[in-house]
Batch of 2 targets.
Target 1
Amino acid sequence: MTVTETETTTGTGADTCAGPPQGDRRPDGADKYTISEVVALTGLTAHTLRWYERIGLMPHIDRSHTGQRRYSNRDLDWLALVGKLRLTGMPVADMVRYAELVREGDHTYTERFELLKQTREDVLSRIAELQGTLAVLDRKIGFYADAGRALASERAR
Amino acid sequence: MTVTETETTTGTGADTCAGPPQGDRRPDGADKYTISEVVALTGLTAHTLRWYERIGLMPHIDRSHTGQRRYSNRDLDWLALVGKLRLTGMPVADMVRYAELVREGDHTYTERFELLKQTREDVLSRIAELQGTLAVLDRKIGFYADAGRALASERAR
DNA sequence: TAGAACCCTGGAGTGCACTCCAAGCAAGCG
DNA sequence: CGCTTGCTTGGAGTGCACTCCAGGGTTCTA
């Protein structure tokens, strides 16, 4: 059996909870997107897409007969994952590491698994941090609201 | 009445949920910390503390008779808030803006209130984003776990 | 009172994640 | 055919948030 990143393609499993709508996908087999279409679909800039490729964060993208990039649905899936990981604050270098593991094939299975689990832990603690911050903000906002009411009743006198 | 940032000092209100222990505070009135003590208490570097001051993110810190910085409990409170805001991803420039509002006094009350409420909204949506990411990670981790079981049972055969 | 450890300043340097540029090829349209 | 728009490349530039340095003064401990 083969453990690759195909599970997110439209055939194998529903792409549950993929943030923004990001419909407008062409059916698999007819999935050839120019870079500007991917820009529209992902919100990234063309610069960034090319840069991702240069640093090894993207696999080598198909090219048209004249050398222009033609992205596939699978590439879009990968970009969606990268987008998710990016907003956890994961450094690009770590994502490149993960991409390398995927390229290297089956025998990196365990390492990928561990990396994902570690990332999951990181996300959980980030959420906890943010909830701590939320508590501080709420306390402060409550203070300002009280002060506001006091000022208002002062004015009313 | 005066709306300043005194509410977090030890006198006025319990400092609920201030992340790490950060005890080791001296009582108000005897609260004079050298920069290296603040480094130990906050985890920031001395460079960063001086830089915060230069860019206006800190009020002007008291100095000893020879010009060395002497931080107060209130300064530590402010740094704790800054730390919280920092890990929401708020840009330093925005925190400087907030610090300016505090320095400008009462008449910036409403603007500060709005800024805090906006920040609260930002934190909430960041948490939501992270939970979306968590769902993606869990799906992926589930996939890897299944693949792992499949591999294991293959080997068992 | 000597030496180590700490603190001061302005300004330069670093690492990250883009972001842009120039110069040139390619594709579609009137 | 000419024009506009889009895509290509390597390399340079940008903005942010630190991070460090040189060269000097200060404070603590033996």
Target 2
Amino acid sequence: MADDDGRTFTIGEVAGAVGMSVHALRFYEREQLLVGPIERTASGRRRYRPVDVDWLRVCTRLRESGMPLTELKRFATLVREGPGNEIERLSLLDAQRERVDQQIRALEQAREIITWKVDVYEQHLRNDEAIGLWDPTLTTGAQP
Amino acid sequence: MADDDGRTFTIGEVAGAVGMSVHALRFYEREQLLVGPIERTASGRRRYRPVDVDWLRVCTRLRESGMPLTELKRFATLVREGPGNEIERLSLLDAQRERVDQQIRALEQAREIITWKVDVYEQHLRNDEAIGLWDPTLTTGAQP
DNA sequence: ACTTGACCTAGAGGACACTCTAGATTCTAG
DNA sequence: CTAGAATCTAGAGTGTCCTCTAGGTCAAGT
């Protein structure tokens, strides 16, 4: 078990490590988005274990992929409840992967339109013409 | 000029065509996110021209790609002001394309993590084992 | 010892992008 | 002609996801 060597981290260290604010970390805890309870020092300060940090890293990835907090919370709850609900965890993740694929497709479409417009402008600037071709609202092929 | 044939559309038709609500369309107009003024009938109802619809389609793409409304407004303003600011329009679009690329990369990373977790769960369900491998907080390679 | 900075809670506040309401008018189909 | 659907305005409200504030406690360096 090289996994849980007694290292712990302050909230500030964790914030730096996972790219969230300390405010957000406390918010996540309040909202029950974490799997285990975060331990405290005698004086009440949070001590994050490596496993907590790992979970937070997963959280940030899922959030980046557009998973809403409600669903992240659902997932956290399932994990907290322990073995027996793997099918639900799986379907939750699978649904999210589907959404990610859709997002990627949408972004690629948007990227094409942007690129097309960039090309139009670049060509315009190269040609330095003012022949009415440059109304960016013209997206249909019909040109005078 | 096969471009501006007198067809016009009601706000409801446009909403259906571009996938926005009528509320959103009025909101966009109020917020100066449109390029031209939308014409009105004698009784004050909006009449959208094809060019307006085209612009709205561009808007939805840019929004889908994560462009904030403030920037969309800036772009609309530049277009409204007419020729002469193409360089700024270009840099705005180019910056957005850069952000889209970053988003795609982030989504692909998230997708990998999700897929990996899905695989883990699927394998688990196939094997029907409970040997402590299934703590989803374990993201580091170390396994017993 | 003292100062500076990190941390604590509970709750308010803010940014964003709409979404909805109310009350009135107007268009359209039967 | 009339009922119902669509539209109008100005402004308030909503959901999401944090972010910040106030008023403290605690820890570490000098």
